[in-house]
Structures are given as structure tokens and as C-alpha cells.
Amino acid sequence: MILGGVQVSGKLIRLVTGMVCTAMLGGMLIGCSDSAGNAGESAPASKGSGGETQLLDGGVTNATGYPIAATPITLNVGILYGAHMGDFTKYEIWKKIEEKTNIKINLKVYSDVEKVNLMFSSRDYPDIMLRMDPSPQAISDAVDAKDIVGVDNLLQYAPNWSKFFESNPDLKRQALMPDGKLYGFPYVAIDEYSYNLRDQWLINRKWLDELGLKIPTTTEEFKSVLMAFKENAGKGSIPKNVTPYYIQYGNNIGGQFDLYGSFGVYTPGSYFIVEDGKFKSQATNPDLKEPIRYLADLYKNGLIVPEAFTDDWGKYTAAISSSPPIVGSMTSYNDQNENYMDGKWWYPMAPLQSPNGKQPLIRRQTRSIWPRNFVIFKNNKYPVASARLADMLAEPEWSMTMNYGKEGAAWTQTADGKYQLTNQKIDAEADKGLGNYGIALLDENMFKNNIVNENVNKEGTREWAYDHIYKKALPAKSLNYPPVPAGLLNDMEKQRLLDLDKAINDYIKTTVAGWIAGKNNVDDDWDAYVKKLDSLGLDEYMQLNQKQLDAASQLGK
Amino acid sequence: MINPNPAIRAQTPKRLFSRKWFKVKENIGLYVLVLPALIYVILFEYVPLYGVLIAFENFKPVKGIWGSDWVGLYHFERFFELDVFWGLIQNTLSLGLYALLAGFPIPIILALALNSANSKRLKSLVQTITYAPHFISTVVLVGMLNVFLAPRLGIVSQLLNGMGITSGPLMILSDPGSFGHLYVWSGVWQGMGWGSIIYLAALSGVDTSLHEAAVVDGANKFQRAWYIDLPSILPTIVTLLILNCGGILGIGFEKAFLMQNALNLGASEVISTYVYKVGLLQSQYSFSAAVGLFNSVVNLILLLSVNQLAKRLGQNGIF
Fold first, then answer.
1. Which of A142, A93, A135 is nearest to A112 (CA)?
2. What ipTM was estimated for this complex?
3. Least CB-packed of A492, A555, B287, B306 within 10 Å?
4. Is the pLDDT score of B182 beyond 90?
């Protein structure tokens, strides 16, 4: 090899080789001793004998009552950074937890998923992980290695969760790993207004009013409204650089998928659906040609702008939340700041009726939990205290605080003991709630009977729009891919599925982009496109997905 | 020829060794000086080499490098059989070659031109201006490209439209055909000043008496650069060319990844970005290692062949 271009004599090379060999041998020894050490540690964590003293976790944890820890303990808790979540360490909730439980939370924020995966591969685990989004492979490897503590045995200390899993077998099944066991406590927020609708389709009502136009109901009307926005750029409150219809192409959120739905082609953010347990492709559905033609027409007329293909997530959020707005129509999960009733701008619009006469559809999300948002690792010396902590956070008031934020800022308690949401944006980091970065137990009953959300009666809000506009446009049953654990397929199958997934979805994404941008024509290329998908291994991809679905449906049975 | 005296013959290797050892002792200071670098290279470049083993197994962090299942060449076959394999190779290779062809001569030309400049102030001004972009991070550079070349509101699009050269949005960012040019020439802009430093250093070693003699003979600036400067720095150029050829497949991940979008993916997906998406984000470490190893082997072959070629052409190789 090259040693910085230095001329080295034969002797020196031999010397170096000798040293390299020694060093490699050293590496081997280090490797061996390392794995030996780990093997020693993987013995089950001692839980303490309990007995008369009632102190568990080696004489620290009370089995019931507060504080959870008889003497102060510290737990290292990992969480993934979220750009919109601010600085987690400044949240007040950690202090509140410590006051009540004697458990000091030592928070470690991981800046990105790569760091998380690296943490898993070096097995340098925290005591507990909240939401960290590791790759499914990393989770299933860690479960296989028994690095993650199964919680089935801990449920006796967690009555809230134990009751939840018993009364919701369908949701429990989403949380099971391939061995049929639970490996974490979930984030549960089964709010129909939240999960049952993906994006709202918003239109700029102020511009409509200024131009004397009505909210469009058909694809034709939509086009002419967008044309009017474009032609009147620079007049009234329509800016010169108006974006008539903003999509972030190919993205689940804010992408073009809801427009496919207007033509009756349901695509849940990818081109594959699950109907009655069967994996089906919409990518090769010829009905897809019609919405693509329509999008190409919008693009040709400058109603979709080229930025649709180049903007990233940051630019999308900037564009849709711009004040004053620069966008005529867009899709967004949240009510944008300047809602129609407050700021008189945005108004939710029903999916459009297309010329083909099919029932227009809007996308929904799966009724699901986040199965492992509170995972206990085997190096955690206080598994019982941790489980009891998870259970405390499942109490209604703690769950409200965890999910929404501080009482008084995010919600208030009413005289009859219900929780009323303030629906206000919380700016102070101390008052913020963790949302789906933490855990909470807010089930359907909680939302139906105990949480008061006045947005339901407030025209123009997401909740109102769901009841009045979108509910009837949802597909009759969920067509989305249900949550499945990793590890249902063997290693080779998993790897094959990954390769196929990347090849097939990249190809679809690029090809459809070319059609919309007018580089190619969908009608000319369709047959070749379908053929190419076949040669990329679409059949095998479908079979592997079906196999995974079938295995998932057998879990817990 | 065999030494007729057996006694002397037997002593030779020993004596040779002691003579060498004497030399080492004599220059012990130099050896001590090189020792830290040697230890560094061994510790950080050679010791971790055993990690390439994971390219041949289904590596599970839990089982460790020595405990994971051995799968031989499975991950290599997996990579070669990918439908996108040839596309990846083509994109990576063409981008690497283009970057080399465009990016290699320009710093040399810049260095020669700067060396021939009369005004010292002009020279240092140009040097400073051409160095500066080197210190811009890739993320910022790509951000600048995105802002300047934005389809509708970018300054370039506005200028071209204003002057009537084009009409409508500028599609350069999403055009697969333009990706290579953008990638390479922004790299040239960023790297040429920095790259010219080493040539300027080499040029400072050129014998001034050669130039004086050439001036007496009536050679002009161009002729002096061509017949004196260029041949003098040729060994440096060849060495750097060989080293650069070793990096053709090693197209940087960061910039290609940041410049990707749905429309240009056909041209912008290179080996390193693919490995990132499938390998690292999905915890497929064995696959990543296999592709990385493949990459290194190809680069090594390229490096050795260019080195050999250079020797055949009468230049000094690097080994």
C-alpha cells in the first residue's frame, strides 16, 4: 500500500507488515473480549426479591404508591430531535416527573436517525428510549439479542397499560413483535379527527372572494379558479409571484396523492394499497393515467410550478405557512395560521368531482398506535420503576400534559372534570407537550367522553371540516398498509424487499414526475412503464409484501 | 558470482544487518520523528481493516464481527444484480471522469497564470478570491445553487428572462442532463484556488536562471510557461493525477445527495447516495461494506493502472 508516497525499503515493509499483523491480532483479541463481556451482561436484569419490604429493583422501587423510587434515582432517556419540537431539555415535564416520582430524567437528544442506528449497532443504549425512529432492522436485531426488556412481565406493575392491552386486542396486535411479545409501551392517541384524515385540501378563500369566484367542486372548476389566480397575479392581495397550486411532489404530506383521489384512485402516500388483507398495486392501475394527464395539464399552464419537484420539506412548510399567503391551493394536515374564520384566508375544500364520475376520495390514515415509544433496555437497573413511570404517564392528566402540554396553557380542567383544549399555539418551550415523541394513553373513550375540543363547532377548522366535508369522502374501509413489526421475513427476504422497494418506488416517482412535467407523455409511455415495473420485479415485491401481511395477521393468535 | 571464501559468505547477512542497525542508530532522531505518523497509520488505517469482514457476512451488531453468519459473496452478488447497478456505475463513473477532466487542468492553468503575473498585488488578490470558496461548506454551496438557479424567482432565471434569452422558468435544477455540469462546475469554482496552491509551491522551486536565459533568448511569457514552468512541475502533476484517478468512483456523497430531486434522480443517484439510503438508513451494514469494498477495489485498480501508464510514458509513478 502507499505510505504517503514515501519510498520504503523491503525491510521496513516487512517490519510494518509484522506490526500490522500484531495489531490485527490485537484487534481480534479486543473483539473477542468485547463480545465475551457483552455475553456476560445479557443475563436477565435482576428485579430484586421484593417480599416483605415491597422494595423492588434491588431495594429501590415501591411496588405501588408514590414516589415510585424510595431513594432518588436517575434514568438516561434517549429521544430523537424534532425540528418543530424545539429544545426538549427545556420542557418542564421532566422536572414535574422528578418531583412526583423521585426519578431524575437525564435526557439525551439524538440529532438524527443515523446517530440512533449507530447507537443500536454499538449497543450503547440509554436506559429508556422515547421516540427514536430506529430502522426496523435495528429494533428486531435488538429484540433478538434480548437487549430490549420485554414488558409482558412488567405489566403487573402497570395496571393502566395492562387494562388498555386487554380491552384493545386489535391495537395490541400492532405492538407485538414476531415472537408474540410486547417490547415497549405505546403512544396512544386514537382521535378520529386526527388519524382518520391525512391532509385537508385548502383553498385561498380571500382570493376567491376578491375575484368573485366560488369554491370549486369539480376538476374543471378547480383549473379555471387556478387560472384566475394566475391571471390576476399582482392584483389585490394576490402577489406577483403567486403559486396557484402548491404540491410537494411525491411527498406523503402535501403531495399530489389527494388529486389522484379526486379521480377515484386511492393512493395512501405510496402507490400500494391493502384491501381486505390483500396487497394491491395502484401503480399499474390504468385509471391513474387520467389524474396524471390532468396534473400535466395544470403544469403546462403554469398552475403547478417547477419548484414542486425541487423544494424540500423546509421550503414546503415555508410556502404553505407564508403570511400573507403566496399560494392559491394546497394540502396540509394542520389548519394554517390564517384560517378563514380567524384571518379570513384558508378554507377547507372537498375533493373534486372528476369527469369520470367516480366518487372522489380523500386520504385517511390508519387507526394505529406508536407501539414502541417507551422502550426499556436491558442495561436499565430499574425496570420496575421504569414500567411504573410509563404507567403513571398513562394517567389521564399526565397523558394530557405529555401529549398537549402544560395545564393552563394547552388545556384546562372543567368543573365537571373534563379536559378542555385551548387550541392555542404554545410558544414557550417549558409549556410544550411531547406529542408523538413521548407516550400517552388517550384512547377513543377519552376523546369521546373526556376531552372537550371546541374546534368541532368552529367553521373552517380541521375538526369541523372533518365532520362537514371530509367524512363522506373517506374510503369505506382503510386501504392503508397496516403497521407490522420488522422480523416477519427472514434476512434474505428483508434485504430483497428493501432493494425492490427502492428500485420500484424510485422508478415510479421519477417516471410520473417526467409525465407531469411534460417531458414524456403518459399515454405513449404507459405500456413501456408497466413492462419496466415487471422487469424490476413488481411480482416478487407484491409477494413479499403479501407474505409479510399474512404473517402479521397471524400474530397474537 | 559465489564468494570463494565460505567464512566471509556466512558472515555477510549478519554484518549487513548490523550495518543497517548502525545506520538506524545513527539516525535515531529521524525514526523517532516518523514514529507517531507510523503509529497513527497502523492504528487508524490498518487495524480497522479487519472490519471489511462484515462485507462477507450478514452482520448483526449483537453477534459481532466474529459471530455473524458468513454469507460469502452474497452482498456483492446482490449489488451486481440490482437493476439500478449499471445506472449507478454509469452515473458515478461519468461524474467522476467529468470532474477529473474539468477539475484537474484548471488549477494548473490558474497556477501558471498567477506565476507569470507581474503585479504582486493582483496576484495575491486573485489568489485570495479564488481560495475563498474553498471554505464554503457543501451544504451552503448547494443552498446557493438552489437560490440562484431557482426556476422562477432565482436571479439567473430573472436575468435570462429579463434579457429575453429565455422565457419561462429555468429548469436547470431538475434537468437530469444539467446535473453533471452543475455538479462539476460548481466544484471547479469551489476548488480551483485551493487546488492551485500545490502547483504554486512547485513553481516556486523552478530554477530562475532558466527563466533568465529564456528572457535573453527572447522567449515570451507564454513560451516560458510552456517550455520551462510546465515541464518543471510535470512530476507534481503526474503524481496528483495518479492520486486523483484513484478517487474517480469515490464521488462525494454530500453534494450529490443534496442536489437530488425527483426529476434528476436518473442522473444524480450515485453509488454513495444509494448506499446511504439502502445501507445506512436501513441498518444494512454488510451491504454497505460490500459496496464500499467494491468501490475501493475498483479505485485501487484504476490507481495502479494509471501509475503503470505513467511509468510507461517515462514519468515517475508514485511507487
1. A135
2. 0.81
3. A492
4. yes
CA distances from B134 to A395, B6, B103, B181, B247 (A): 56, 65, 14, 19, 19
- E strand map for B32-131: 57-58, 69-70
Give the tens place of pLDDT for each residue, B252-304.
788 999 999 888 888 999 999 998 888 888 888 899 999 989 998 998 998 89
| Euclidean distance between CA atoms A551 and A106, whole angstroms | 38
Put simply, the chain B residues between 196 and 215 with a CB less than 8 A from any chain A CB are: none
Q: What is the pLDDT of residues B60-115, one digit of tens each?
A: 887 888 888 899 999 999 999 888 899 999 999 999 999 999 999 999 999 999 99
pLDDT value of residue B248? 83
CB atoms near residue A72 (< 10 Å): 12
Are B46 and A123 within 8 A, CB to CB?
no
- DSSP-based three-state secondary structure for B93: helix
Using the Cβ of A513 and the Cβ atoms of chain B, whether some distance falls under 8 Å is answered with yes
Per-domain boundaries in chain A: 51-193+369-452, 198-363+481-557
Spatial separation of the C-alpha atoms in residues A243 and A220, rounded to whole Å? 18
Percent helix, strand and coil across chain B, each rounded to 5?
Answer: 75, 0, 25
CB contact under 8 A, B61 and A122: yes
CATH superfamily of A51-193+369-452: Periplasmic binding protein-like II (3.40.190.10)
Nearest to B64 among A4, A35, A136 (CB): A35
Q: Please state the rounded mean pLDDT for residues B116-140.
A: 92
Name which of B20, B23, B46 to mutate to probe chain A: the one with the most chain A Cβ atoms within 10 A of its Cβ. B46
Cβ distance A120 to B58 less than 8 Å, yes or no, reads no
Count of beta carbons in the 10 Å neighbourhood of residue A207: 24
Model pLDDT for residues A163-179, shown as the tens digit of each residue:
999 999 989 988 999 89
- First-to-last alpha carbon distance for chain A, in angstroms, is 58
Strand partners, A274: A279
Integer angstrom CA distances of residue B16 from A10, A17, B20, B23, B30 = 14, 21, 6, 11, 21
Cβ B234 vs Cβ B108: under 8 Å: no
CA distance A164 to A162: 5
Q: Which of A402, A297, A333, A317 has the alpha carbon at shortest distance from A79? A: A402
Contacts with A, B 167-186, CB within 8 Å: 169, 171, 173-174
The CATH number assigned to the domain with range A198-363+481-557 reads: 3.40.190.10
Instruction: Give the nearest chain B residue to A536 (CA atoms).
Output: B83
- Contact across the interface for A137 and B266, Cβ inside 8 Å: no
Chain A residue with CA closest to B51: the answer is A27
Put simply, whether B58 touches A (Cβ < 8 Å) is yes
Distance CA A387, CA B256 (A): 45
Q: How confident is the model at residue B25 (pLDDT cuts 50, 70, 90)?
A: confident
- For residue B319, give the nearest of A8, A116, A508, A420 by alpha carbon: A8
Query: Strand, helix or coil at A144?
Result: helix
A509 closest CB neighbour out of B146, B262, B280: B262
Q: Mind listing the domains of chain B with CATH numbers?
A: 64-138+177-312 (1.10.3720.10)
Alpha helices in A78-237 (DSSP H): 93-101, 113-122, 136-144, 159-167, 169-175, 192-195, 205-211, 219-231
Nearest 5°: the CA angle A462, A190, A365 is: 65
